[in-house]
Amino acid sequence: MIRSRLSQETKDAMRAKDAARLSTLRLINAAIKDRDIAARSEDNNTGVSDDEILTILGKMIKQRNDSAQAYDEAGRIELADREREEIEVIKTFLPKQLSETDVRKAIADAITETGASSIRDMGRIMGVLKERYAGQMDFGKAGAEVKASLG
Asked: CA triplet 124, 128, 133: central angle to 5 degrees?
C-alpha cells in the first residue's frame, strides 16, 4: 500500500514539476530499494513489508532531525530548512502519531503484558512497542519514558 502511494505521489510530483518533493520521494524509494535488496532471498522475492517501510521512514526522519540540528548549530539555516522540508514530505507516509497520553498508555500496557520489573526488561518492552506502533511514536522519547517507568 505504501509502495503504490509512493509511486503515485512520485508521478504527481513529476507532473507538477515539484523538484524538492520529487527529490525527497526518490530518496525514500532508494532507501526502500536498498532494504529490498538486502532482504532478498529465495523465500522473499516481494521485498520488505509495510511495517519495515515505516521503520525505514522513521529512521529517515531521525537522520534529518539530527542533520537539521547540526546545521542549525553551524549557522547553516538554509540547509536545516531543507532537512525540515524533507521531514514534512516523509511524515505524509507515516500513520497518525500517538499523543503523549496514548504513548504512556502503550508503554504501561507493554510493561504489564511483558511482566517487566526492571531496566533489564527494557529490550522486550521496546520490541513490543516497535512491533505494534511502528511509525506512530518517537522511540527515543519512548525509551526514556520506559526507563522512567521502570526506574
From this structure: 145
